[in-house]
Amino acid sequence: MQLALISGLSGSGKSIALNVLEDAGYYCVDNLPASLLPQLVEQLSREGCQRLGVAIDVRSGASIAAVPAILEQLRHQVEDVRFLFLDARDDTLIARFSETRRRHPLANADITLDEAIAHERELLSALGELGHHIDTSNLLPNTLRAWIRDTVVQSAPHCGLTLLFQSFGFKYGIPVDADMVFDVRCLPNPHYDKALRPLTGNDAPVIEFLERIPEVHKMAEDIQRFVGEWLPAFVRDGRSYFTVAIGCTGGQHRSVYLAQRLAREFAGRTQVLVRHRSMKAE
To answer: What is the pTM of this model?
Structure first.
């Protein structure tokens, strides 16, 4: 099992960190009392859980003091334990609470926000040196997400960006979820061959027809090169999914063929999905 523990000050970005873990396939638990962590790990291990992310912070109450001993125990029982402590300057935390208008978990009618933050620092002081300490004061959310992935998620399977190739027919409209759209209507259309018309780009006769045309290969190579060149930038941007839409007139032949072909080309670089949006509509 890979166990990722997230702790830190309220408003420092723990929710962002936990969301990154959840997107990467971790079983995530927020606001778990620290004393229950060993039982949770034991139970989920028996159930075959491979990746567990848990947020433990000042909301755990008095049990937060037991975290150092519990962590030391777990390091001897769990194959991979990672502890991440998120921090931020007081002025940054105050600004964030003011922007979101959320109440600090320690604040009440008798204590101000800055006093609540100071008290929380004191309660969590023993946790800050237990693992990787990140000051999020000047980090944009996307930057923090990237740091969490680099620090915690990098060895998890199926993490990172999922690349979706989606064929569609322009006569049904451009899919609104597309990040990139390529128009391949300029290529020869198998629709005008009566024998090929009822088939799709998944059928061998259509594939053979298209692969005899040099322009089809040139189009596929150009799209592959363009997507390949810019894909790392979208990974750095923190995308979980990126959709490349390939459109022909009806979404039956050319776009289907190219979506399948491109998916094969990128299969070794990242997690790849293929969807044919209009194939059944024709």
So the answer is: 0.61
